[in-house]
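Severity: low
Component: inverse-folding endpoint
Summary: output formatting inconsistent between runs
Steps to reproduce: submit the following structure tokens with default settings.
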């Protein structure tokens, strides 16, 4: 997407690969919206750390990062011994797969890369196949988001108020995003609508990342506190909900997404508001039988007990200050601890439809359409 900073506009992808330096290039998402910075991870362990520490986050973006990280690890191997090479690649795979547990995209992405690598007969062949496959995963992620936009745009009518949760925008993918793809496509078609971004505590991806993206795209939007959605729904001020997902079970249609998604789905059902989930094919888990078995990441309590931001007064207009002072502010009672599950699981019956690159499906129809949806 295009990013405009201090009047200069340039296109960016969230994740790219620098072949000359064998490094993965990432937008440092923890600094947004106050600072726009690209960082390089120099080896696969640093790449895994960037995923764990959320330098890069969002299902598709960490999928592409893991794919590039696997290629990066493979390319760093010196020698011709295929057995030693395979053992090394297995270590790289395990390290990256363990970086964040809930999203299935990193594992699906790395499985794609490994399948391609298996076609090579030598270490050198497998190394170059790994990089080509990682590039293909990233490009496919972009194509999938474009297709989601084409299918989803018809849900957006003039004058609609749309609610979204967390960030399933281009920062959560290689480009364009999933929940935002229908919005961007509808904007191109000249439709006018308004978006409410759930703040999405504890890390506030809605208030920081989604709001920044929509502002960059000049889409009308407002941030709301996580607790405000029910009130707005009750007053008829939300017409449609679109969110992303970190894992969708192909067998049951259950959806794991950022904590608070389930609450919004219950509220939407209560108020008969359509609730859609937008995903690329890499977010589908065809193996698991029940949502209860999805590993839910428990994150550090400090995220709940306080917040990161830049030093400012509540009403001062900060616009990309040259040296923003980032700081953590303790908000909670100093002697209290916190519990911090990162994701929840929404049952299929609360979801109106899943917007995929192959069309919009009822959640329970994923399995019967598995061929169309890339199951093999
Ligand atoms: O913890 P995050 O920021 O990596 O969580 C992922 C998300 O942003 C959301 O759950 C999103 O809605 C799905 S990822 C496209």
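Observed output (run 2 of 3):
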């Amino acid at each position: 997407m295009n990013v405009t900073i201090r009047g200069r506009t340039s296109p960016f992808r969230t994740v790219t690969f620098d072949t000359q330096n064998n490094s993965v290039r990432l937008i440092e998402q923890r600094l947004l919206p106050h600072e726009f910075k690209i960082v390089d991870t120099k080896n696969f362990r640093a790449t895994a750390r960037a995923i764990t520490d959320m330098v890069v986050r969002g299902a598709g973006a960490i999928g592409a990062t893991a794919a590039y990280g696997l290629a990066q690890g493979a390319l760093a191997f010196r020698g011709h011994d295929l057995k030693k090479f395979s053992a090394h690649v297995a270590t790289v795979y395990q390290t990256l797969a363990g970086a964040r547990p809930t999203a299935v995209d990193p594992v699906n992405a790395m499985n794609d890369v490994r399948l391609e690598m298996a076609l090579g007969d030598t270490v050198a062949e497998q190394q170059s196949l790994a990089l080509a496959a990682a590039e293909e995963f990233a490009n496919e992620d972009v194509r999938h988001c474009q297709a989601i936009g084409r299918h989803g745009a018809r849900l957006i009518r003039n004058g609609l108020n749309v609610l979204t949760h967390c960030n399933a925008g281009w920062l959560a993918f290689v480009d364009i995003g999933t929940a935002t793809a229908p919005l961007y496509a509808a904007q191109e078609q000249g439709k006018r609508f308004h978006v409410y971004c759930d703040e999405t505590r504890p890390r506030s991806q809605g208030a920081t990342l989604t709001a920044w993206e929509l502002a960059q795209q000049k889409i009308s939007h407002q941030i709301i506190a996580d607790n405000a959605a029910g009130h707005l729904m009750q007053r008829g001020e939300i017409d449609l909900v679109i969110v992303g997902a970190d894992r969708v079970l192909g067998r049951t249609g259950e959806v794991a997404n950022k904590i608070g998604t389930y609450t919004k789905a219950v509220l939407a059902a209560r108020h008969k508001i359509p609730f859609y989930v937008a995903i690329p094919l890499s977010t589908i888990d065809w193996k698991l039988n029940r949502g209860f078995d999805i590993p839910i990441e428990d994150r550090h309590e400090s995220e709940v007990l306080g917040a990161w931001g830049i030093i400012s007064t509540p009403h001062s207009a900060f616009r990309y200050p040259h040296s923003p002072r980032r700081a953590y502010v303790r908000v909670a009672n100093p002697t209290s601890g916190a519990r911090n599950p990162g994701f929840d699981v929404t049952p299929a019956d609360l979801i109106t439809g899943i917007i995929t690159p192959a069309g919009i499906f009822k959640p329970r129809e994923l399995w019967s359409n598995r061929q169309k949806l890339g199951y093999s």
